[in-house]
Structures are given as C-alpha cells and as structure tokens.
Design goal:
Number of helices: 13
Strand content: under 5%
Radius of gyration: 19 Å
Distance between the termini: 15 Å
Number of strands: 0
Length: 235
C-alpha cells in the first residue's frame, strides 16, 4: 500500500469523530433506490426523501402500484420532490415496467453473474451511470466495489493529491483508486468511507469555496498545504 493511501483510515477516523456514525438516508434495495432517485429533482437527499415519502403515501412504490396509477396521480405524488414531476413520473413508469416485465418484479434477483453484466443492466435504467451503478452494487450488498459520492468525488482527491482534475471521469477514477488502495474490500468499510466523504463534501470540502480553515483533516490535506502554504505535494 502506498504511504499516502495508508493515511486514509486515520483520515476517516477523524471525519467520523466530527460527523459521527453515518447511515444512508436512501433505500438500499436496487429497485427501491431507482425509484427513490427519481423522487426528487434536482436530485438531493432532501428532495428525494420528500418525494419518496409522498409517493409511498399517495401511490406506493412497488411496480404494480406505479403501473396502476395515472400519470396525473404520479406527478402529483412526486411534486413535493421538486421540479419536472411529469418527467419523473414517466421515468418511474419506465422503471416499473422494465422491472415487472424483465425481472418478474424482483430486480435484485436479476442482478447476478459477472459484474460487467450487472453494471450493464443497471445502466440501462434512466439516470444511472457508473457512479449510480457503483452506489447500488455497494449499498445493496451485491459487490464491495469502490463507490464514490457522485457530487463530491473531489474530496479524497484533494486530500491525497492536492487538486482535482477538470474532467469528471478522471476525478472519479482517481478517487476510486485512492479508496481501492486505502480501504479494505469489505462492504461496511467502503460504505463507511462513502458516507463520510459525502458528508464532508457537503459540509466543508465543497467544490467551490471549501471551508479549509474549519476542516479537521487540513493538517493531512495536500490541497490545504498547496493553497495556504505553497508546499509541493507529490501526485
């Protein structure tokens, strides 16, 4: 393990001391997560939770519940989750129909076999790309892949390498490489890393205007060293 990677467990411990034990606020079942993801727009924990709660109350979330509801009823149920409820309703109908027709209502049972094939299946659903597929695989307990929070892949890259790239795909892969090296390939360890980095990225290590002076790991952060002290760091 690289020396830099060996720092990651200590960094995560410090973050956990600050933020406490983290738990996902989203459903971890693969189908349920697909529904939850379209319950809010712009998608965030807050908007998705609001839409999810309303959908559960007004319609239900099982494929047959969604397929039996009218478009107008679905859109009304999704409205508390934010913008374009009609479009999100259409996507839920597409998801429910595919799961009902292709997987007999049980998506989890269909996510078996080679990881490449499982990824292909997941990425055929609307709004799911590599970060979303990784998140589903990890939190559903299917494969202990390295999942990185899609809205803040820069966090671990900043801490370890000093700066993030402009290209999102490159940042995401670099973040994966850091966690792959520094966190054991176990579900609980990689879920913990995902949740703590997500919380840190949303609270202090924001993409723009990060609050570096308040960061509990700034003494170990290559980005902080470069920004405030002009020290060079190996990347």
């Amino acid at each position: 393990m690289r020396a830099e990677a060996s720092r990651i467990p200590a960094i995560l411990n410090v973050l956990e001391s600050m933020y406490g034990n983290q738990s996902p606020c989203w459903p971890t079942d693969p189908y349920d997560f697909l529904v939850w993801w379209h319950c809010g727009y712009p998608a965030s924990d807050l908007t998705c939770v609001r839409g999810w709660e309303s959908l559960n109350k007004e319609v239900g979330i099982e494929p047959h519940h969604i397929l039996q509801a009218s478009m107008a009823k679905l859109a009304r149920a999704l409205k508390p989750g934010g913008m374009v409820p009609e479009l999100r309703a259409q996507r839920l109908l597409e998801i429910a129909a595919r799961v009902q027709d292709e997987f007999a209502g049980d998506l989890r049972a269909g996510l078996r076999g080679a990881i490449k094939e499982v990824r292909r299946i997941l990425k055929k659903f609307p709004g799911i790309n590599d970060p979303g597929a990784d998140r589903i695989l990890l939190f559903a307990g299917l494969v202990p892949v390295v999942a990185i929070p899609s809205n803040c892949p820069h966090v671990i890259v900043r801490i370890q390498r000093g700066q993030e790239r402009e290209n999102y795909g490159v940042i995401y892969r670099e973040a994966q490489a850091e966690i792959e090296q520094g966190v054991p390939a176990k579900f609980d360890a990689r879920m913990r890393a995902y949740l703590l980095l997500k919380q840190h990225g949303q609270t202090l290590c924001k993409r723009t205007n990060p609050k570096c002076d308040q960061c509990p790991v700034n003494a170990s952060c290559a980005f902080f060293a470069k920004k405030y002290h002009g020290r060079s760091t190996s990347i």
